[in-house]
């Protein structure tokens, strides 16, 4: 079915369509208002998300979607770039786009909502408190947030699993004696390990049964697809080995490259244990969760074949509170 002509749409639909169509101009204008040092990858991503939330608010007739996003982003990204200046410039750019693309009556909804968005931008922020609440948040985290949002939109269960795997990876890293930087790197690897599943058909991701051979072959492509996605973003390129190799097996029968033993990147070996454990104790469309004790038994069964023995031992310590 073809899209309705502009004249046949409601005011909300016309407003949302105008914002979406003007997205490149809005983002470009907002970034141009920032200093050269602040025109970062993070700023570009957040500007694009601003436009998406603006269009979603217009379509739903609910401007709290945009206001809440702006308020949270100003808190989260304080000290990374000047979010308040970015959003103020984006608001002005949206107004400019609407003045030339919709009639005044249609654009009135945005102008009425603009006051609340500006109030959120102007709310005083305490950087010291924000920094304590969001330790180590930097441009990499902005990129990861954006990718995880895409995963959440594709499959919320996979995104939930990824957040849990990130937590397990961080705890494992500490138990294994990693440095602070290594803990951060492993946590990020766990968070993004399944990003390739944004390319997996939803009927396969959510199948309420075991997959057949053809479906499993499609599912397994997510490791390579995820590696490609991550490698294309310079800021997170160092996470590529973890994403590509987290389904390799210690005995060399895994995928996609059939690596074995120490040829499997260490970070991928850690993610593999955290991923498998959380998959077993988590809810799945085709089976109920396993008890943690049963999941640990399965890890022990795969020790030296599927998993690095040292990492399995560390996971046992973490889960049984010996870490």
User: What's the CATH C level of the largest domain?
Assistant: Mainly Alpha
Instruction: List how many beta strands DSSP finds.
Output: 0
Provide the structure class. Answer: mainly alpha
- β-strand percent reads under 5%
CATH architecture of the largest domain, please?
Answer: Orthogonal Bundle
CATH fold-level assignment of the largest domain: Hypothetical protein af1432
Percent helix, as a range, is: 55-70%
Assembly classification: single chain
Brief digest:
The chain has 17 helices and no strands. It has 323 residues and is an all-alpha fold.
Structure explained in plain terms:
- The model is unreliable at 1-7 and 128-136 (pLDDT under 50).
- This protein starts with 10 loop residues before the first helix and ends with a helix.
- α3 (41-60) crosses α5.
- It contains 17 helices and no strands.
- Helices cover 66% and strands 0% of the residues.
- The radius of gyration is 23 Å and the shape is elongated.
- By secondary structure, it is mostly helical.
